[in-house]
Amino acid sequence: MKNRIVITDLTRMRRGAVCISGYDKDHHCIRPITFYPGILESTILIGNEPIVYPFSLVELELLDKRPEPPHTEDQYFVPGSFQFIQDVKDRKRILTWSLFNSVQNIFEQPILFKPGSHIKDGQGPRSVGTIHAKAIVGVHFDQGPENTWDFRLSFYDYSDTYYRLKITDLTFLYYLSSLRTEDSQPLQIADKLTKVLKKMDVYLRIGLSRGWARFPDLCFLQVNGIYTFPDLYEGRKFSDYRNFSAHGIAESPEEA
User: Fold this and answer.
1) Chain segment 93-117, per-residue pLDDT in tens
2) Looking at residue 255, what is its pLDDT?
3) Quick count: other Cβ atoms within 10 Å of Cβ 36?
4) How many CB atoms lie under 10 A from the CB of residue 78?
């Protein structure tokens, strides 16, 4: 069955894979999935031009649904069936399709904070949604394995709850990596981006990881998308930064 969705999430996974989700015309969230090794980043590019990226309208061939709470949006698709249709200009309108006034209201489950913000696997109506950040506190650099970057974003939502979550937004990670030079090191970049984001109107896509070997029953909260008004990237896409990323970026622990 062919369907069209507006892409709202493009996140970094493991081993060159990405996770994608978006919304159809009825505002239903769909996360296309396939078998190992998942959706490879290389398969959503033609040359250096992406056919799937945030706020692109794409058509794809959908197969059976595979809801596994809280990841109720999962649906198999035919690999290689993505077709780019057009850019979607009214980004804020798309984000309002899934807008909640707090992170808690997205998941409708108790959020636990040790060992990191998470909910229990196996329950909940959804695994992703949008919030309008009340305040950005900071971008934070942590050293990941094998000289990779591990960035986190701290913020308050409109319930005045504070979160510090791992960033998995592919475009944002490539953008950060592309800024690294001999004269501009990670902590300087984090400080600069903090100042920039504090001046912007910021919407966040908050999603849940899947369990993995270390924590098989926990779904950790993560920042799937950082969307600013005005646009931080000035219309550029993840592909515009990936070839200039001289240093590694940390992968999500989540399995594709």
Assistant:
1) 999 999 999 999 999 999 999 999 9
2) 35
3) 8
4) 14
